[in-house]
Amino acid sequence: MKLFLLKILGCFFLLLLIPIESTNSALELIITDGINKARPVAILPLNWTGSSKLPQDVSSIITADLQNSGKFNPIPIPKILKIPDFESDMDFDIWVNLGVEVVFFGSILENQDGNYIIKYQLVDIARAKFNKEKKDILGFDIRSIFNKNHLLLSTRAIVPANQLRKYAHRISDLIYESLTGEKGAFVTKIAYIVVENEGLYPYQLRIADYDGHNERLLLSSKQPLMSPAWSPNAKKIAYVSFQNGKSGIFIIDIYTGEHYQVTAYPRHNGAPKFSPDGTKLALVLSKTGRLQIYTLDLKLNELTQITRGSSNNTEPFWHPNGNSLIFTSDRGGKPQIYQVNLTNDKINRLTWRGIKNLSGQITSDGKFLVMVSQIGNSGFNLAKQDLESGVVQILTNTFLDESPSISPNGNMIIYSSIYNESNALSIVSMDGRFTARLPKRKQRVKSPAWSPFSHNN
After folding, report:
1. Which of 248, 253, 294, 320 is deepest in the core (most CB within 10 A)?
2. What pLDDT, in 10s, does the model give residues 221-244?
3. Do 146 and 201 share a domain, yes or no?
4. Same domain, 443 and 300
5. Total domain count, the chain
6. Residues 54, 21 share a domain
7. pLDDT per position as a tens digit, 377-418
8. Which domain holds residue 131?
C-alpha cells in the first residue's frame, strides 16, 4: 500500500535520471537488444551538391530512426561501394550477397534560394534483380510491364534549410509505412520534466523531437512540476505544478507559451489526461479524503465525479473510443487496473495476473493494455495484456519500471527504469524483442510523454 500511495501521489523518490546536457543535445539511444532480429536495410549517403557543408546528415537521421524503431537493421555500407544516382546503376548482386532486402539512395542539391532539392528512391532488391534478369533474357525492359514494382518510393521535394531535419524524419515515416504497412511515428515529439541539480528554477517542462533533438524549454519553476500529458492535436500540454505551494493542474500552449490553471481543489490535484476529442480532462482529486477519478469539461468548467468509495483510485487513461476510462485502484487490496464505463458507471477489473498492476495505458487500436506489473516478488516490469484473450506478456527485464508512454502508432513504449543500479529512460518495442536505453547525463529527466500524431509536428 505504501508503494502504491507513493506512486499515485507523484512521489519523487524514484526519479528518472536521464539528463540533457544542453538545448542542442539529443537523447541518443543505446541499443541493448533485438537489432540482430530486425529486417536488414541499406541507407546510402545521399549525394550532396552544394557550396558548403550540408547542415543535416539526412541519411544518418533516417538510419537512426529506422534502427530506433526496432524493426530494421541498417547495415554498414561497404567503403568501396559507388553511391548510385539511379537504380539502373546499382549492382544488385552486392546487396543480395549482403542479405539486404531494400536500399535507400538519392541526392541533395542546394538551389539558388538556399533551399534543398531532395531526390530519393527506395528499391526492393529482390524484385529489381528479377526484373533486370528478365530484361537481359528477353531483350526489353520488363519493368514497364510490372509498373516498376521494385520502386517502393521515388520522390522529389524542395525543402527549406530549417526544415531539413524534420523532412528526414518524414522520409523515415514513409519508408517505415512502405515496408510495414503501419504509420511511422518519427515526426512526433516527447514532453518531459527536467530537474536541474542547482539554480533558481530547478524544475522545467521541456519538449523535443521524439529523438531528443530540437529541445525547447516551455516553462521553469521553483516548485515541482509533474505528469505532462498531450492534447490530441499535440498543441497543448496539461501538467501538475506546485507553484502556489500546493498541487494544481495547468494547461500550456506549446506554441505561444500561454498557460493557465484549471484546478485548485483542496489537497491533491493530479494525473491529468485529455479525452480523445480534447474537450475534457480526466484527473485525480482527493478533496473528499480519498483519491478519486473525475472528469472536467474544459468548455463548461463542469466537474463530474467518476469513482467513489473508500478505495484510492488514480492514474486515469482514456479508452480510444472516449466512452470509458481505465484506472488503478486498491479496492481489491492491492493495486490493479479497472475500467469504468462512463455511460452506466459499470466497473470491470481488467488485470488478474500478478501481485500488482498499475500505470495502465491502452494502445490506439484498443487491443492491448500496457502497464507496470509486479509478477512474483521481483521488481516492477512493463507488461502487455491482450484485452480480448487476457494473455499477458512481460516486455522488460529491467528493475522498477514506471511511467510508460506509448508511441502514437502503438509500436514502441518509452518508460522509466532502473538499469545497472541507476535510473534510465528506456524504449521497448510492443513485441518485447527490442530494447534501447538513453544514456545517463548530468540532469534528471522524468515523466516522459509521447505526443499524438499531428500535422504541426
Report:
1. 294
2. 999 999 999 999 999 999 999 987
3. no
4. yes
5. 2
6. no
7. 778 999 999 999 999 999 988 778 889 999 999 999 999 887
8. 32-180
Backbone φ/ψ region at 248: left (φ over 0), alpha (ψ -120 to 50), beta: beta
Domain CATH number, residue 138 = 3.40.50.10070
Beta strand residue intervals within 20-150, DSSP E: 30-33, 39-43, 47-49, 72-74, 102-110, 116-124
C-alpha cell of residue 411: 509500436
Rounded (10°) CA dihedral 27, 32, 37, 43: 40
Query: 192 and 158: one domain?
Result: no
How do beta strands 336-341 and 347-349 pair?
antiparallel
Does the residue 457 lie in any domain?
A: no
**End residue of a domain, out of 125, 154, 180:** 180
Give a yes or no: residue 319 inside a domain: yes
pTM comes to 0.86
List the chain residues with pLDDT less than 70: 1-37, 80, 85-89, 129-148, 419-424, 439-442, 455-457
Length of the chain equals 457
Query: Which neighbouring-strand residues pair with 207?
Result: 191, 216
Tell whether 262 is covered by a domain. Answer: yes
Contact 427, 435 (CB under 8 A): yes
Q: What is the spatial distance between Cα 389 and Cα 370, in angstroms, rounded to a whole number? A: 14
d(CA 236, CA 455): 14
